Amino acid sequence: DSGGDVVQFASPSYFVLETEGSVTLHIMRRGLHEGYCSVKYHTVGASAIPEKHFQSCSGLIEFDDDDTDTSITIPIFEDERWNPTLDFKVILSEPRNCTVGLHLHTARVKIIDDNVFPSDTYRGEVTGGM
User: Fold this and answer.
1) pTM for the full model?
2) Which is nearest to 100 in space by CA: 42, 11, 29?
3) Under a CB-based contact definition with an 8 Å cutoff, are residues 116 and 125 in contact?
4) What is the pLDDT of residues 86-127, one digit of tens each?
C-alpha cells in the first residue's frame, strides 16, 4: 500500500553501551502528515544474538494525522564476558498508506561492551586501578 508520506529511521546507525539496558531508535514520517499510516518493524541478529545480547522484537508503528516522529525501545542484555562490538539490525517493512525510506528502512544497532579483555577477573590489573 503506497502513500505520499515516507517513514524511515532518523539515523542509519545507533550505538548503545551494554550497561545502558536498552536502545531507543527514532522513526520519522516525512510528507504531508495527513491521515493514518503504519509500518511494521522487526529485529534481525547479526554478530549480536537475539535473546542473548538483545531482545528480539517486532511490532507495528502507527502514525495518526499530523504525527511526525515516534520511537521504539529495544532491551539490551548485559553479560560478564568480553565481546567485540556486536551489532543487529532493525528493519521497517509492510508500509500502509505510506512508503518506507529507500536507504533508511534499516538501522544497525552497535552494542559496545563494557568488559575488559580477556576477563573482568583481572579488571583492576588491566585498567591499572583507574
Assistant:
1) 0.88
2) 29
3) no
4) 999 999 999 999 999 999 999 999 999 987 776 666 666 666
